[in-house]
Each structure stands twice: as C-alpha cells, then as structure tokens.
Write a structure and sequence with these properties.
The protein is of the alpha+beta class. It has helices at 17-21, 45-48, 72-84, 133-147, 157-170, 185-192, 194-211, 235-250, 279-295, and strands at residues 27-32, 37-41, 91-98, 104-116, 122-131, 175-182, 217-222, 225-231, 254-255, 261-262, 266-272. Strand 9 and strand 10 (261-262) form a beta hairpin.
Length: 302
C-alpha cells in the first residue's frame, strides 16, 4: 500500500474566480453600451495594453480610434453581428491596433453580450483581447515561404501558375505572358561554378523586380527559366518593358571568387492570351516565341 504524507491530505483552498481573472495573461474587460466606456478591466490591462488606454471612456466603441483603417469594416460588421444577435454567442475578430510608438500590433478580440436590459437589448459586452502579433508574423513567413522561390525570392512555379489561372478565369482584361531563359546557363555553371550561377539568377530576379511595375507578377518556373505576367498590358508595351530588362541584364557584370569577370544574357518569348484559350495554350505560345528568340541568335525579345 502506498502511504500518503499527511500534509497532502489536508484540504487545499482554491483561489477565488477574481484572483484567477486578475492573473490570466490576456486583457479582459466589460464595456457599457449606455455609458460608452469600459467599466471593468483586469489589472493586466496596464501590462499588455497600455496603448489602449485612450479608448477607455471615449465615445468610440472599444478601440475604434486606435484601429488600422483597413480593419474598420470587419470591426463594424463584428459589432453589428454581436449587437443584433438574439443569443449570447461570442464573436472573434483579429484587428491591428496602433501602439504609442506608432507601430501596429495584431490583437485577437472575442466579444459577447454580457448583460441585457429589461427589454432584452444588449447593455454590456464582455471582451478579451490578446496580442497575437508573433503568431501572425510566423504565419505570414510560412505563407511567404510556401509561395516563393528559396533562391530568388520571386514567386515559385505553383504560385505563379495560380495567378495566371486566376487572371484567365476572370478574363476581364488583356494579359501578356513572357517566358525568360538565361542563355547558355549550363556553361555558366560549368565554367564559373554554381555559386556564380546562383548570383546570375539572383541578379536577373532583382532586375525584374526593380524594373517592372508593381502590378506585374513574376516568378521562377525552375532552373534558369522565369515567367512574367502583364495583366492589362498589350504585347507592344510588354515588349518594351522586357527589352529594358534585357539590356539591364546584358550590361551586368559578375565576378567569381578568384576574380574572373563575366557577363550573361537572356532570351524572352511573349504571348498574348486570347479569350477562350487555356493557360496551357498561352504558356505553350510563349515557349514557342522563346524558342524563336534563341534560334535567331539569343539575347532578344521575340
């Protein structure tokens, strides 16, 4: 038989609910709809949410005054949903709030009706807020890595093709695609090494990013092959843009670890999407144009 120490058999007094609430590592509060102010806040308020202090007692419900404007619509919808609901089920929303130093933090907020008046209308709201910025940042990094090429940081093949399919499915505007290929890239790796080859790829990606407009989507299809999408752009305008990219890349110089200097060129094939055709047809046409550019001497836009 296992003997139990006498001191462990004594009745242990449990902490009061208020004691527990005061130490929960999230900010909890009660908001009075008639007074338009926070009538209760746990002490942790001053530890994790001091930048929310200006919302206390304001005419703006909870933290509207400190909210990122981009989140106002979702916040308004959440408030209306809670106030109009017949039941007391809570609602969860994530908002960006401005700190005293001007930076934004992601705050997860859950609100529910806490007290109703004699007519059944909401009188007070019970809410909890928790800083989830680190979680959101981690989620953003994971999503970025899943959609981008590890070397060039451009979109990867899957993400770029998804954008292409989406543009074609919408079919509301012109669409030009360009497939790009580094000329004789295998010989670059063979003569100067794969580190130099990686530098060539990264430089080409950097030129694409710096020289093309923000509405353009660009990605690495694999190896030394890239693709650029021009939504709403006709072929002639896309050709001008890619000719500029071609010249910038051809004028770039690369230096190996042992001091050898070399340059590289690229070829480009353009194709215009026609209503009723698939994304595969468009990519195949761009591939054929690229083949023509290489057959005619490389380092050109076809």
């Amino acid at each position: 038989m296992i003997e139990v120490d006498a001191e462990y058999t004594e009745e242990v007094s449990l902490p009061s609910p208020d004691f527990v609430v005061r130490r929960v590592p999230i900010w909890s509060f009660v908001y009075d709809l008639k007074k338009k102010e926070i009538v209760y806040s746990n002490p942790l308020y001053n530890e994790v949410g001091t930048y929310l202090n200006s919302a206390k007692g304001s005419d703006n419900m909870l933290v509207r005054a400190l909210m990122n404007p981009k989140d106002c619509t979702s916040f308004e919808m959440a408030c209306k949903t809670v106030l109009s609901a017949c039941d007391d089920n809570g609602l969860y929303v994530e908002l960006r709030l401005k700190l005293e130093n001007g930076s934004l933090r992601w705050i997860a907020t859950r609100v529910e009706v806490f007290v109703r008046d004699q007519d059944g209308a909401p009188a007070q709201l019970l809410g909890v807020m928790e800083d989830v910025t680190e979680i959101k940042d981690h989620q953003k990094r994971v999503e970025f890595e899943a959609a981008h090429d590890g070397l060039t940081r451009l979109l990867n093949r899957r993400a770029l093709l998804e954008k292409l399919k989406l543009n074609i499915a919408q079919g509301r505007q012109a669409l030009t695609a360009c497939i790009c290929d580094i000329d004789n890239f295998k010989s670059v790796n063979d003569r100067y090494g794969h580190i130099a080859g990686d530098e060539v790829l990264c430089t080409f990606a950097k030129i694409l990013t710096e020289e093309l407009s923000g509405s353009t989507a660009m990605g690495r299809l694999g190896g030394d092959e890239f693709c650029v999408l021009f939504p709403g752009v006709q072929r002639d305008d896309a050709a001008v843009a890619m000719e500029h990219v071609r010249r910038c890349f051809a004028e770039s110089l690369f230096r190996t670890s042992n001091g050898r200097v070399f340059s590289a060129t690229a070829s480009f094939g353009l194709a215009v999407w026609k209503r009723g055709t698939s994304w595969k047809v468009l990519m195949n046409q761009a591939d054929k144009a690229l083949f023509e550019a290489k057959r005619n001497g490389r380092n050109q836009v076809a």
